[in-house]
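Lecture 7, part 2: worked example. A protein chain together with dihydroflavine-adenine dinucleotide.
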Amino acid sequence: MTLARTLLLRASESPALRRQIQDRRFARRAVKRFMPGEALEDALTAAAELQRAGLATTLTRLGENLRDGAAMEAVAGHYVEMVRSVAERGLDAEVSVKLTHLGLDDGTDEPRRRVGAIAEAAAAHGSRVWVDMEGSAYLERTLRVYRELLAAHRNVGLCLQAYLRRTPEDLEAMLALGAAVRLVKGAYQESAAIAFTRKRDVDDAYFRLATRLLRDTAGGGSRHVVATHDLRLVRLVRAAAGAIELPLGSVEFAMLYGIQSAAQRQLAAEGCRLRVLISYGDGWYPWFMRRLAERPANVLFVLRNLVG
Ligand code: FDA
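Predicted complex, written out as structure tokens:
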């Protein structure tokens, strides 16, 4: 892990820095590169625009580690309303949620109930809900809540992180339950004891896990999601799908709004299923810092906004 990445990930967890940066105009300008705006309406407008270009979307309202029960209820209610707005506008837009935005820190059953309500609303419109994977301190709890959710709602999928050494076992356990999995490399600061830290090792692990997902789909399992901007891995996964004669439409690729936008459109034009994750909301600070950490060169872009 580079020093810049380590520092940026540490900064993502600092409430003091958050207070310093969040309201600065240069930061708000810079964050626009990765999100269409703070309001749901901004996200819906962006989703409609992407849909016209052949791209489906996933919507997520930014926020994590909420402690206030009323605020968490409001987040859950917001998502239920969002599912309705998406259906009214005829958008192919799924939902992705963070369990710590919905009460995971409290140790109660509430996150399961809240995501369950969102899943029910999504099921009524034939749509899916995704559970994000957060830092490893939340992994066991996330898996437990996810298992309970899946037992009651078949339209809930789970994100797994290729950088964690234990993910092959978690993946097998989830596939045995019939889960739909969104595979990512992983965005948090984790120790070498539990996570691969060299890019090459993460990439190799990612490819092995992605091919496992392809075999699961070929064997009648769910349609999984290969979420990466790494175009080399996208090429390898496409070739691996071809080698087992899995139709291109059986795999879904996913990228974040504002990253590799030209490649997103190109892949869709080539017949790939491509879903763009759009984040919105005012709780963007930790999420934005993780985007910078993924590509420390992005800091230059932020600095340009500071001077310009
Ligand atoms: P990698 O970091 O190797 O990047 C490959 C190339 O993509 C780079 O060389 C660069 O060109 C471009 N790129 C990548 N990130 C960029 C950035 N921020 N700015 C500009 N260019 C960039 N993580 C997690 O821990 N839990 C989760 O729930 C999710 N959910 C999720 C959903 C979706 C749809 C996506 C695409 C990603 C996530 N992630 C996530 C984030 C994920 O773990 C990972 O941090 C990022 O996707 C970056 O890794 P890549 O696979 O893109 O490869």
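Residues 132-133, 159, 161, 184-188, 227-230, 254-256, 259-260, 277, 291, 294-295, 298 surround dihydroflavine-adenine dinucleotide (CB under 6 Å). DSSP finds 13 helices and eight strands in the chain. Keep this in mind for problem set question 3.
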